[in-house]
Write a structure and sequence with these properties.
alpha/beta; 15% strand
Length: 117
């Protein structure tokens, strides 16, 4: 089941001109990914390696001159987007990065992929 607010998020992105999303699968981001996959106006590509996914999204956004959405799960997956996000920022290339997170009370409890994001 996709939560209504996630469907709304994908619709807002589409209404703002987003037509492309790059997904790096994970269990935490599955509901967000499904909302974008099911949106009729957004084309999604699945690229499991986050670092590659982020640079591909950056290149697409640069060539299209409009935002591309990046979606990944929590923890170090989001950190792998870092180099491309920094490069896009300084080149003023529009990226919209959506990541999942774990409950705050799990931070510093030795739970895998639970870090301060």
């Amino acid at each position: 089941m996709i939560l209504p607010h996630l469907t709304y998020l994908a619709s807002i992105c589409a209404n703002k001109g987003v037509t492309e999303a790059i997904l790096s699968p994970g269990s935490r981001c599955a509901p967000v990914s499904l909302a974008f996959i099911r949106h009729p106006d957004i084309h999604c590509r699945i690229i499991p390696d986050e670092r590659s996914a982020a640079f591909i999204a950056m290149g697409m956004a640069q060539q299209r001159n409009k935002p591309v959405v990046l979606i990944c799960t929590s923890g170090s997956a989001a950190l792998n987007y870092g180099p491309a996000i920094a490069e896009a920022y300084y080149q003023q290339i529009p990226l919209l990065v959506l990541t999942a997170d774990r409950p705050a009370e799990w931070i510093e409890q030795w739970d895998g992929q639970t870090i301060r994001q």
